[in-house]
């Protein structure tokens, strides 16, 4: 209940500040209510959205190499997953690590208690012997706790942080650097981070991934307006807005917009706001960054990490990279 109130408050603040900006802006962080999460699951199965399949292939073909890195020197490790979601891809690793009798604990971290409960119950059903220690918290608080806990004993497990699924692509450049610096400051030498980065490729392939023919990405983007109607009692007419995606191959940024299809004014009584839109005016809702190898190597260097593992799919579309402190 508190979780819901906090989420509503955060959305209210985003709408209050984002819809008076020029250009208007709402963060993709607010896409993921129950319906948004369901739509994202569907997007992952569309033929155009190659990211999930590419990463699935990587984890499957590289699981043994990853285990060698994570369990180097026979140290036990904590597999700490940031924003675990339904853990579908992570289960490839969990299953293999269990089969190999690796000495590890799975620590999914999520701010959604219901997502964590579902995932934990599911894992306990599938692998009753696997040690799972879910943490309902903000990523950095949870990492603070884990690294503080490890100070107490000399034989602390290595922390292996997972940040999969190109979630990093939804951060701005500055946020990306800050994120790795923050993680770095919480790790000890020898700890690792495994990140899924979507790579730059033919622009048409990227453009299509955010413009699927079934219109699921459009529904996903428009769902943000439905959520604002529902949570803040607004009167967005969803049929008067369209989805527009733009990929810029010069900087690797895919951007999603909602476009007003006419002159209109939206009323949000809960915030005492009236928001005018011109025909053709946009709300910028998401950035999905695509990386080059150089970008990733520079990111590691700038934040203090060494790149110790590089795993791509057979098409070279996506990469899972190990950074080590
Ligand atoms: C969650 N995130 C990595 C997805 C992406 O590719 O940026 C969200 C998404 N947006 C549109 N389609 C999928």
From TrEMBL:
<feature type="domain" description="Histidine-specific methyltransferase SAM-dependent">
    <location>
        <begin position="12"/>
        <end position="324"/>
    </location>
</feature>
<dbReference type="InterPro" id="IPR017804">
    <property type="entry name" value="MeTrfase_EgtD-like"/>
</dbReference>
<keyword id="KW-0808">Transferase</keyword>
<dbReference type="InterPro" id="IPR051128">
    <property type="entry name" value="EgtD_Methyltrsf_superfamily"/>
</dbReference>
<keyword id="KW-0489">Methyltransferase</keyword>
<dbReference type="Pfam" id="PF10017">
    <property type="entry name" value="Methyltransf_33"/>
</dbReference>
<dbReference type="InterPro" id="IPR029063">
    <property type="entry name" value="SAM-dependent_MTases_sf"/>
</dbReference>
<dbReference type="InterPro" id="IPR019257">
    <property type="entry name" value="MeTrfase_dom"/>
</dbReference>
<dbReference type="InterPro" id="IPR035094">
    <property type="entry name" value="EgtD"/>
</dbReference>
<protein>
    <submittedName>
        <fullName>L-histidine N(Alpha)-methyltransferase</fullName>
    </submittedName>
</protein>
